[in-house]
Amino acid sequence: QVQVVESGGGLVQPGGSLRLSCAASGFTFSLYDMSWYRQAPGKERDMVATVTWAGLSSNYSDSVKGRFTISRDNAKNMVYLQMNALKPEDTAVYYCNARYLRATFWGQGTQVTVSS
Question: Of 14, 23, 87, 97, which has the maximum CB count within 10 A?
Answer without folding.
Answer: 97
